[in-house]
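Hi both,

Apologies for the delay on this - the queue was longer than expected. I finally got the flavin-adenine dinucleotide-bound model through. Below you'll find the protein sequence and the ligand SMILES exactly as submitted, and right after that the structure tokens for the full complex including the ligand.
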Amino acid sequence: MIVFPTTLEEAQASKGTIRAGGTELAERRRLPGLGGDLVDLRDTAGLDELRFAADGTLRIGAGHRIANVGSNAEIRAVYPGFAEAVGGLATPQIRAVATMAGNLLQRTRCWYFRAPETGDRCFKRGGNMCSARAGDHLYHACFDLGSCVSVHPSSIGMAMLAYDGLVDVAPGGLRSVSDLLGDGTNASADNALKPGELVTALVLPPPQAGEHSAYFRAISRARSEWPLVEVLVRLVVVDGVIRDAAIAMGGVAPVPLRASVSEAKLLGKAPDAAAFAAAAQAATVGSAPLPMTGYKLELVVGSVLEALERAAERDPVVLPAPVNKLPRTSQETR
Ligand SMILES: Cc1cc2nc3c(=O)[nH]c(=O)nc-3n(C[C@H](O)[C@H](O)[C@H](O)COP(=O)(O)OP(=O)(O)OC[C@H]3O[C@@H](n4cnc5c(N)ncnc54)[C@H](O)[C@@H]3O)c2cc1C
């Protein structure tokens, strides 16, 4: 059975798996035992807002289509790194249908998790082993954080981590994206959302004055693929000195990670080649590659360096005007 609740309350009270754009769920539901009732959010009111609050915070409704967020001129000016990560993921067709929350909450792409023959042994499907660890893990983790060695699939989760983003959950309210996605040690889940909980919005704090940002992905083909490694960099440069830095990495671990040693190395330095090279090298601190994922460490160093250089070459971001409601585009039909 599929229900189409029109209010959040109705959606929360409905029994079944939540469907947003359905682009990830449709494929997973073909696996044995993963069908069942659906709660489709297509008609649910209150999930499509897009606005800056008076304090400059950006609130993006959970049901907003990825394409509309990635192409929004104001978001591109205020959060260029975020807009690049969002606007370049997957394919134009997927971005036109998929939603912001669906992206954040998509399940791992690990081929053992998604294979009918091996899936039910997988930690993330209630089993007690990780077939990838001893098997083919070419696209898996190079930071081995626990029993599961898959990588978190969400580019938006990685991007939100760089912005210390928040997620609004009903019931319960705001929680940090790092709380929602966890620390990667819980092999049985891709996020900490509980049954009955619904993400209603993604929230980004305002950028800082003097902030520069950029996104880079190392990918095995030109497009239409998850990245091998992806990086979002934010640099706050005041009077020629780096005052703050945030570097988030995806494709490297069961959760997106912050390169905190690299961030610390940048503080107080001029944004120059020497500082960037040292920070990029430090991005592998804590890594523990699997037999087949050692190649990712070079990609981590190169991707962090590339994103730092791109960020530094850009003009500082535009700070949001207070109480600025973003215009809806004609594509924003839900
Ligand atoms: C070729 C290809 C390349 C891709 N490349 C990338 C990439 O580079 N980066 C990337 O990030 N993704 C990539 N994707 C994945 C794609 O972005 C996801 O399929 C999509 O974002 C899922 O969004 P959706 O709205 O369709 O989610 P759905 O399929 O509807 O849902 C996904 C999950 O989220 C849950 N959910 C959805 N909304 C809510 C809510 N409001 N509250 C609670 N739970 C909810 C659902 O129950 C489900 O478990 C790629 C996909 C393809 C096919």
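Main takeaway for now: The domain at 211-313 is CATH 3.30.390.50 (Enolase-like; domain 1).

I'll put the files on the shared drive as well.

H.
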